[in-house]
Design brief:
Largest sheet: 8 strands, mixed
Number of strands: 15
Order of helices and strands: EHEEHEHHEHEHEEHEHHEHEEHEHEE
């Protein structure tokens, strides 16, 4: 018996939409038009489970349950009452809302949440409503921060109004997808797991080629590389929101996981190393690699950039150095970037070099011929992936 088609939406960090779309295509999904902030796609229940399990660069996966025009609360309530909330949510669900409104006559997020919450509560008296204190006008970083603080058991309902068109969706992921479950120890200014995966994909790293991250911090880039190289799904060691849905099918979920497990390789085919001058960062990286199940695939050492040994075979240097947002900080980082370029040219000839940057003057210090491959926001800072070949 064929499964019902689901209208799904993979939320992406602005700038990463093409990468998320490429991942969805590789997984065999039919895509809609790429939008700013995400990619719509069609799937069945198995596809929804697989998207959550295997997408490396998305933020979350939504299921759209209603779309309609609303210029007043009467229309919002009329359409809200038509949604089969009882079949979508458990009788004792803990529910949270995320409301955004742009260029619409219904603009007060709190009032929109109140009306829809009352409809759900009227049908499900044991439902618990949680609020995140936002008014529906916050940006992506503020919204993500609210989600980080939200109790994972809460079912997030996304309400978006744009030019009086209202879309209501359920979050199927639960915690944000970058939370793989392995990174319990972090170093200073860590990069999110999905962003690290995006760097590797955008740079075009070949999974059999050697990879070096000389400023690895808590090891996120090398660990994500090892997961990719071994074909371990990013969501392998975590749970998802859809597992709490009334229509969750454990048999389908077991099959999806079994199919993914059959593709996992016993070991990474190429050498993956990370180093950092901070001993605490290296301890955190080793512990994170153990939790990720790739401790045998990644080698972490405490060392400085100047201690990098020469390589005869070409490989990839991919890293996330300090950004130097303030002018004074940039001055202090000039030597670091100059050293990175010197070491790449003298000891890693023919290597591809890729790193995140937020300022052209620091990029110039490397004296490498670089081009911008990707631009996005990391922690509220506009950054771009710079890439070149050392020579």
């Amino acid at each position: 018996m064929p499964q019902l088609r689901i209208s799904a939406y993979a939320v992406a960090t602005p700038g990463l939409e093409p990468i998320v779309a490429a991942e969805l295509t590789a997984l065999g999904f039919t895509l809609g038009k790429i939008e700013q902030g995400g990619v719509p796609f069609a799937c069945d229940k198995a596809g929804l489970y697989r998207a959550n399990l295997e997408l490396r660069t998305a933020t979350r996966v939504l299921v759209r349950v209603a779309a309609f025009r609303a210029v007043g609360f009467n229309e919002l309530e009329k359409h809200g009452k038509r949604i089969s909330w009882e079949t979508l949510l458990g009788a004792e669900a803990s529910v949270g809302f995320r409301v955004t409104s742009k260029k619409s006559r219904l603009y007060h997020g709190g009032a929109i949440e109140e009306r829809l919450g009352a409809i759900i509560a009227g049908r499900m008296p044991r439902m618990r409503l949680e609020t995140d204190g936002t008014d529906g006008t916050g940006g992506t970083d503020e919204a993500d921060a609210a989600d980080e603080a939200r109790e994972p058991a809460a079912q997030l309902i996304i309400v978006r109004l744009f030019r009086d068109q209202c879309t209501i969706s359920l979050d199927s992921s639960g915690e944000l997808l970058h939370r793989r479950g392995y990174r319990q120890a972090v170093a200073k200014a860590p990069i999110r797991e999905n962003l690290a995966a995006a760097l590797l994909i955008a740079a075009g790293w070949g999974k059999e080629s050697e990879l070096l991250d000389p400023m690895c911090g808590s090891g996120t880039i090398p660990i994500e590389a090892a997961l990719m190289a071994r074909r371990i799904p990013p969501g392998w060691r975590r749970g998802f929101g859809f597992e709490r849905w009334p229509d969750f099918d454990p048999k389908i979920w077991t099959r999806v996981r079994a199919e993914a497990e059959s593709r996992i390789l016993a070991a990474a085919p190429g050498r993956i190393t990370g180093s950092d001058r901070d001993s605490g960062a290296i301890e955190a990286a080793i512990a994170n690699a153990e939790r990720a199940g790739v401790a045998g695939d990644v080698s972490f050492t405490r060392s400085t950039i100047s201690a990098i040994e020469s390589r005869t075979m070409p490989g990839w240097l991919i890293t996330n150095p300090p950004y130097g947002v303030r002018v004074g900080e940039r001055e202090k980082l000039r030597n670091l970037f100059a050293q990175l370029g010197n070491v790449a040219r003298s000891r890693l000839p023919g290597w591809r070099v890729a790193f995140l940057s937020s300022h052209a003057s620091l990029e110039a210090e490397t004296k490498l011929r670089l081009e911008s491959k990707l631009e996005f926001s990391n922690g509220g800072i506009s950054v771009r992936l710079m890439q070149g070949i050392s020579s």
